[in-house]
Amino acid sequence: MVAEALPKTLEAAPLVLGLQPAALIDNVAPVDWSLLDQIPGDRGGSISVQKDELDHILKELNTHISVAPLKKMAGGSVTNTVRGLSVGFGVATGIIGAYGDDEQGQLFASNMGFSGVSISRLRKKKGSTAQCVCLVDESGNRTMRPCLSSAVKIQAGELSKEDFTGSKWLVLRYAVLNLEVIQAAIRFAKQEGLSVSLDLASFEMVRNSKSELRKLLESGNIDLCFANEDEAAELIRGEQEAGPEAALEFLSRHCRWAVVTLGSKGCIAKHNKEVVHIPAIGESIATDATGAGDLFASGFLYGLIKGLSLAECCKVGSCSGGSVIRALGGEVTPENWQWMNKQLQLKDLPVPAIHN
Questions:
Q1: In this structure, is residue 297 part of a structural domain?
Q2: Would you say residue 120 lies in a domain?
Q3: Tens of pLDDT, residue by residue, the chain (356 residues)
Q4: Helix locations, the chain, DSSP H
Q5: Residue 256 domain-assigned (yes or no)
Q6: Cβ(125)–Cβ(148) under 8 Å?
Q7: Is 179 within the bounds of a domain?
Q8: Nearest-5° angle of CA 291, CA 294, CA 300?
């Protein structure tokens, strides 16, 4: 299969690179209980579906949607983080991955390009682009149904040293199915002097492939690790000490920066011997929790890039994470970037010098 990559010789290397092996389109819609009752599987969480199931859900959505139209956007954890850094913080970012030669693939590439993210490391392949249906109930809880099985994605052998040259950070999301390409990306990143940030993805992912994950963490190649409370609990399940503090301690033994987010209770973080506990931002109304952790990572990384203290990095993350949950989907609206900037001002934190 021949993969086309756009030329990147004329552009400066992005400061932050994200690895999203398979480009993904999110189909986000507000729904009521009656539709959720017709979708196979439990409410909440994420269960993979086949193409015919995805088409069935999208067809059902078209007959049910009355409150607001279906929103389609480039999705995926890493996508959300690098797009947030670009649009909300003015940081030069790029994305590495593959997209299909279909309508969804074109939408992914154009959405990222429009957001200022360099797409010259995206490979176009013959085949379909991954999709996910994100159903959001009136409480802001989401039910995810991703369709990934037949989607094109980048392979480890397609990466090159030049993809990473000149950048400073590589952003990853843990997935055991993508472990080979993740490991290849880390090898190139370390050869080129990049720091590596890893998100633990989901408690199911941690539970089902804990030994591979712990081996990755214990390699010493992960500089920054983000875990939410459920992922943290799963990571150290069965050990004498449990709880987020014990998970933070485990992560900090292997990573320079460790962060455990605690939802409405804020977050805890550790760097060297410093530990901070930062409360959640109180002024945010949750419409849709999609992307909260991804945008927290955007803010935290921006803080590190700007040389802020550990506590300040957490506070910026709290503001950016709070901004995305005020609307549907993992892409922050212009109004909510303005809301974030106001929160940063109120907390005497640096406001990005860009116009959203």
A1: yes
A2: yes
A3: 445 554 544 578 999 999 999 999 999 888 877 777 777 777 777 788 898 889 888 888 877 765 567 889 999 999 999 999 999 999 999 999 999 999 999 999 999 999 999 999 999 999 999 999 988 887 777 788 899 888 999 999 999 999 999 999 999 999 999 999 999 999 999 999 999 999 998 888 999 999 999 999 999 999 999 999 999 999 999 876 778 999 999 999 999 999 999 988 999 999 999 999 999 886 666 766 667 889 999 999 999 999 999 999 999 999 999 888 777 777 888 899 999 999 999 999 999 987 54
A4: 33-36, 51-64, 77-89, 103-114, 179-191, 203-208, 210-218, 229-235, 244-254, 292-305, 310-324, 334-346
A5: no
A6: no
A7: yes
A8: 140
Specify the pTM.
Answer: 0.91
User: Sheet containing 195-199: which strands, arranged edge to edge?
Assistant: 4-5, 122-125, 93-100, 16-22, 169-173, 195-199, 224-228, 257-261, 267-271, 274-278
| CATH code for the domain of 289 | 3.40.1190.20
DSSP assignment letter at 120? T
Domain that holds residue 161: 14-21+76-126+155-199+281-346
Strand partners, 29: 135
Two tokens, residue 299: 């803010």
Q: Is 220 left (phi over 0), alpha (psi -120 to 50) or beta?
A: left
| Number of neighbours of residue 207 by Cβ within 10 angstroms | 15
Pairing of strands 169-173, 195-199: parallel
Q: Which residue has tokens 């970037």?
A: 337
Tell the residue number behind the tokens 């974030």, with chain if given. Answer: 340
Question: For the chain, what is the domain count?
Answer: 1
Q: Judge whether 156 and 183 are in contact, CB under 8 Å.
A: yes
Longest dimension (CA), the chain: 55
